[in-house]
Design brief:
- With 115 residues, the chain is an all-beta fold.
- The chain has strands spanning 3-7, 10-12, 18-25, 34-39, 46-51, 57-59, 67-72, 77-82, 91-97, 104-105, 109-113.
- The strands form two sheets. Strands 2, 4, 5, 6, 9, 10 and 11 form a seven-stranded mixed beta sheet that branches. A four-stranded antiparallel beta sheet has the order 1-3-8-7, with no helix packed on it.
């Protein structure tokens, strides 16, 4: 089965940066749209960004201009570079593979933005 393993979360001050990584296995990684979602306490899991197999990106309005999604197909890895972080970015961030039938999800990595 598909396995998605996130890393790179942690505690950062407002205005700081973090880079999340997601390594995929058990999938033909290069042909699938990948993405990142996040879920804050008491909130729904919401889209952050997606990237297609050809590198076309899409972002939530709340992160445009601050976050950058990218992928390295040779490493089966998708990244989320997060800059100018705000306290409202605090959430568990989940790696996502769209799939043709069912999506696949990672276990999540905690990002906390606080002084």
């Amino acid at each position: 089965q598909v396995q998605l393993v996130e890393s790179g979360g942690g505690l950062v001050q407002p205005g700081g940066s973090l880079r999340l990584s997601c390594v995929a296995s058990g999938t033909i990684f290069s042909i699938y749209t990948m993405g990142w979602y996040r879920q804050a306490p008491g909130k729904q899991r919401d889209l952050v960004a997606t990237i297609t197999s050809r590198g076309i990106t899409n972002y939530a309005d709340s992160v445009k201009g601050r976050f950058d999604i990218s992928r390295d197909n040779a490493k089966n890895t998708v990244y989320l570079q997060m800059n100018s972080l705000k306290p409202e970015d605090t959430a568990v961030y989940y790696c996502y593979q769209k799939g043709f039938t069912n999506p696949s999800w990672g276990q999540g990595t905690q990002v906390t933005v606080s002084s």
